[in-house]
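Revision sheet: structure tokens.
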Amino acid sequence: MPSGRQWANVLHARYAGGASTPGSTEVSALDAKLARFWTGTAYTSGTAWLGQCHSNVTLIDITYYILNGVAPPIVINHAAAGVITTGTSLPSEVAHVMTVRTLVRGRRNRGRIYLPCANSSAIDAAGNLTSAIAVSTLAQWNGLVADLVANNWELGVASYGTSWNLNPTDHHLAKIHSTWTPYFTPYSTNSMDLKPDVQRRRK
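Predicted:
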């Protein structure tokens, strides 16, 4: 970020419907396409997000964790930056958010992707992201999802099987620890509004 702090998102991808475990070759194939959401060639009517960012917003690396309990993380370095050199970047804690949904209802089955601060040129007179950029960002994600099929990858939402909830019957609002069998739900659709959000830890 322009502030020098790092931004990060956690995405979940499943290989071959969970029927086999990917190795470094399969992860490299995933990375080549996943990075395209942030930088590089557009998918049809899509636009890579760093195309909306000032050059002081950069992509450093993507770290992959194969969730088999034993594989070490795979770090793939990138040297990409926003393409806009005029105007100014929005504050580092500002992010526009894309919501990822599945065909299953409930908070466990949807997620958010925080897009790093856009350039001032991407913002309209009311202080919101322009609708054209929102549409092209959603299209870029959907192009990525379709492109991954050829490599046996699919994006989705992982539910890790544990959470803490407030007990509504306890006037002290004690937390209840609930568990379930972890599962993965494939991506179905996405959406994003035009309003900026704030992540304080990104300052």
